[in-house]
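subagent[fold] <- orchestrator: predict structure for attached chain, return tokens only, no commentary.
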Amino acid sequence: MADDKNTSSPPPTTPESPKVAPDPNEGPGKGKAFFDRAKSVAATGNYDYAIDMYIEGLFREPFNVEEHKALREVGMHRKVSGAKSGGGLLGGFGGAKQKYKGKTPKEALLNNTFTLARDVGNISAMLAMLRNADIMGLKDLVLWIGPLLKEANRTSKPKVEIYEELAKIFAKNDEFERACDCLNEAAALRPNDSDLLTLANTYAAQATMKRGKYGEAESFKDSIKDVAGTKKLLQEENLAKSVEYRQHALTAAKADFEANPKELQVINKYYKALLDMDEEEYENQAMEVLKKAFEETKIYRLKMQMGDVRMKQFKRNLRMLREAVKADPNDKDMLRQYHDLNKERLAFELAEWRERADHVPTDLNIKYELGVRLWESKKYDEAIMAFQEAQNNPKHRVDAMHFLGRSFLFLGMKPEAVETLKRSIDEYELATTGDKKSKELHYWYARALEENKQTSESIDVYSKVVQWDIGYLDARKRMNELRAQVAK
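subagent[fold] -> orchestrator:
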């Protein structure tokens, strides 16, 4: 039986909120009769009816996190019992049709809750539930469903976009540590995205400031204490390391290394301390340390770390040249240097990932990275073989299929390109949202349809891209040209 003292309170109305007549059916304790009934019928194994009763109760207490949790437990029991997604009384005799039209955030939230209860792993329902809880200002509910969504995303086919949206909502609710965790997960999937790491560091700094309670001191003396405490936290967490702090850490790590030069943990600590200096001189020292350790131990991971450092250097130097070219587009010598260095980078990375694939042939992440370099080198036949293996890794499945389809397209295998690019869209859970990846997937699917003379279908897909972003590449131009051909 639900206890009133465990019931969360509805969010207070802020002075800026529009005045809305309170719903006489909504408020703490209003759903108790339905929650009690739900628990009674759930105990008999009638899970579908129990879920319906919980939804009725939550219509009256959408803010009641404890009852949301209880409903989730019922959904779990229902799944274990072997019930399929669907069933229930809401919507009539037909089964699981949702009761509410979803015209308000509250109705949409309840529909999401209803769907999730019958399909406990439904990531789309979790995401929609999170969004609507955030719109309604139900912070407690956000902080409950958010971690569930994060874990579900991590253990299925991780999506960077979901981590990014989660981080944004957590940050909006002043949960900066959670936001930072989400972006760190996203950065692991997209390690070359500097924007993700920058934003993660921003959230981490805000989390530290929040823990240090900087700005909340009641006196000047307290404020000074807060500043000192916050500075210490920032240093300890590697968020704003001064040169002196990094040098001190490097000196300590070097001393440990010189005392135990063959201890792998000590080697790794010294290597990371050298990298933290973020200067090529120290990075070269790190590679020398790794090279010597690899020659003595033959542990291939150490050689891979050497390659990681070199790839980091290429990335940084290319970024510097790119910025220089932007500053002076007429400097042909600088542009030539950029292209020469990029060719050198690609040759190194291709050789590096080939070697890794030879040493660790079962690692699908390596297969994907190799495929990307083969594709960039226009070695499409080899890229296809790499991506066909890599698509079996949930982490890279959508991207591998996308590159696979484009490889087919560049080789003139148009029907195969159409089918594969369509599957990449079907596999992408946020394909209908119009996010950055959605636009890319649909644009190249439209290109394949166009090449395959499926003009009408191609126009429809281009139209979808244009409705999302009218300036996306040349989608609008291609759509208009195809329409003109049809008109003739």
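orchestrator: received. Logging for downstream: Residues 300-327 form the longest helix (28 residues). The radius of gyration is 28 Å.
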